[in-house]
Amino acid sequence: MQGQMTAPSIPGARPRLSLEASDGQARRRKIVNGIMTTLIGAAALLGVSILGIILGYIIVKGAPALNLDFFTKAPPALGEAGGGVAPAIRGSLLIVGLASLVGIPVGLGAGIYLAEFGRGRFADTVRFIADLMTGLPSIAIGAVAWALLVKRGIGTYNAIAGSVALAIIMIPIITRTTEEILKLVPNNLREASLALGTPRWKTIVSVVLPVARSGILTGVILSVARVSGETAPLLLTVLGNSFASNNLRGPMAALPLEIYQYATKSPFADSFTKAWGASLVLIIIIGLLSLSVRLAARLGGPQARR
Amino acid sequence: MSTSERRGRETATIETAQTGIADGRGMAPASASPAEMAQAAQEKAQVREVIEQKAGGGVSLVAEGVNAWYGSTHAIKDVSMTFRANEVTALIGPSGCGKSTFLRCLNRMHEVLAGARVEGKILIDGQDIYGKGVDSVRVRRHIGMVFQKPNPFPMMSIYDNVIAGLKLNGIRKRKSEMDETVEHSLRGAALWNEVKDKLKESGASLSGGQQQRLCIARTIAVEPEVVLMDEPCSALDPISTYKIEELIGELKQKYTIAIVTHNMQQASRVADWTSFMLAGDAGYGQLVEYGRTEQIFTQPQDKRTEDYITGRFG
């Protein structure tokens, strides 16, 4: 070792560089950091606990209503004990299923179009309308469906009108989430595929969509969950039905309508319990749906993902 | 005179030229053990074997009066240049001179960007790739591309990445043939030994240098005639860079190669021909000088070229 080493620190002498945590600025930063961390932690906790309270309340209140009959039987006369919400479960599945059948492909298609080809005035217009539609009150959409498909069209309250209203609510949600997710896919993957001599459509289907799959699925599930709980448009279109019905051109039972009926139109305590029970069933159905879609996506996906 | 003789002589002259410019292949790991050296030699032999099996060689690519725009921005103006069959042509120049843009024009990747436009002719095998009735997808099957940032498909395994070009193009082969293509292409990209036991793992799990060689394997799996490389080593460490440069030296036997690089030593090491591009005050990039690498680096004809290669250039 040659040359002058830096002089060893002289005891008591103040070092030239301040690395001390006791420095005023450093201390203040630590305090602010602590406060901010606590605040955002509290915000997260608040959000989760509100959700937990709602869920817990519904479970506590709804669980007593649940038994085999509740899932398999039709509702009894108002105020009578027993019976179940089987027609409503079936009606909800039918109405939401039909809405998804229309809404998911249209929403996905529009989202893919906007993200992959959407340049120019037409695309901007589509984007603008989709944004407007996400903000439309669902009861307004229900009213339009009522005017076109109940008052005119089929001429009576019917399930199709309800599905159309729900599909209209779903489409802009799926369109915009799909577009945003696809925009996150790095462009160099598209270019890598194109440079191999892959046609544009094949690049989108085989390279871009698989990368974005989980994000797109989240958007789709969210939209299905959202419309499953919609009540206002169904009141104006599907109306409700105490009997099991497969007739899409007539009134049909649905879980949100059942909850509404039991909670508001009946003085009996048993009806309230049933309303809670129906709420719980709705949550369980959405939960199961979301879980199974995610599971299916994971099983069908690549093993090694980082 | 056979081509191989000619090529041999040229390589010799270029290697002499290199020693004067940069320290040649000095980037090779200096302290390699005998075992490592034996493995490297074996790998090289594998690469050569694979490349020699390729049916047909590279074909030349001729650019005539190429202009490119991004929207209303004129990016390159009137570039004419020849990429000779089975030789490496380097494109050098400062950032923003349009060399990458020009490279992307060569396989119709420029037009993929919004508002991008190309004019001029690019002839491959006598046909203009911008001619009427020419399908850009077909063009890209003959003119492959390796990008600056390694971009393996993240949702695919190493195996699937290699055959991605075939699968995406709907080419169906039996499993055994696919296996063969994968091994063949990975050997050709000097990656086989490192990944042969983990072909099912994600391509994204490899190191940057390995990912770039995976991208090269993916490109040669579709057997193009021309391979374009856009700064393929700029994100890689010296050892990975060295491996890829070695590979380029082997690949040129059967492929025509165009490489954009910011690294002048790299150009002098790998290229037979070099072109220097520059963006003038007007903003668009133009070709300043084109010639044998040796000549460009030792006796540049243009003052601007000399300024750039000697580092006097701002």
TrEMBL record, chain A:
Highest rank taxon of the organism: Bacteria
Cell location: Cell membrane
Region Disordered, annotated ranges: 1-22
InterPro entries: MetI-like (IPR000515), MetI-like_sf (IPR035906), Phosphate_PstA (IPR005672), Phosphate_transprt_permease (IPR051408)
Membrane topology label: Multi-pass membrane protein
Database matches in Gene3D superfamilies: MetI-like (1.10.3720.10)
ABC transmembrane type-1 domain location: 89-297
Transmembrane region(s): 35-60, 93-116, 128-149, 155-174, 204-225, 275-297
PANTHER family for the chain: PHOSPHATE TRANSPORT SYSTEM PERMEASE PROTEIN PSTA
Name recorded for this polypeptide: Phosphate transport system permease protein PstA
Organism: uncultured Thermomicrobiales bacterium
